[in-house]
Amino acid sequence: MKKYISIAIIATSLLLTGCQSAYYGAMEKVGYHKRDIMVDRVEDAKESQEDAQKQFSSALEEMQALLNHDGGDLEGAYNKAKDEYESAQDAADDVTKRIDKVEDVAEALFDEWQSEIGEISKASLRRNSEAKLRETKRSYNQLVKSMRRAESKMPPVLTAMKDNMLYLKHNLNAQAIGAIKGEFTSLQTDISGLIKEMNKSIDESNKFIASLEGN
Could you say which residues form the signal peptide (predicted)? Predict the structure, then answer.
């Protein structure tokens, strides 16, 4: 369970109604610093990617079930596939929102860190802090690059799913299903590639969280 979760809930209204700086300021007053928020938001982004992996896999399974449909309730099978596609879209949107939040707190954290370095009078301590800041920024940039790369693979998959769903909506019969079976292999490949990229991003998230908590 995340630290200070009750504090985060209390401050939600500030996040919704005020600017981010006011939110961070209020959280810091109760002992919940930007570094803590950073860890939580990277964790949230990681979890959203894990959820998206499951959702895209589930959507693929339902589409496969629809394409392999052999009699019975064809419309019911279509509706299941459509529901899973829409859930995959929602999961993709959540991934983007979570990454955006990571970037927001990272900017605030690094700006504060850089500013506070200038307040350190002892040169050796200042150099050490500057080195840690550079190292953390490098690790962070690698993390976000990995997250965005995985994120970029979702829209093409969703577009292909949407095309198939719309085509079947207007032509829900065995002939129409046969017509899109050729697209399915490509979709399988794309989703497999998406999941692999997400796994890389999830690994980077774990490394980054460990590096922050270790500092």
Answer: 1-22
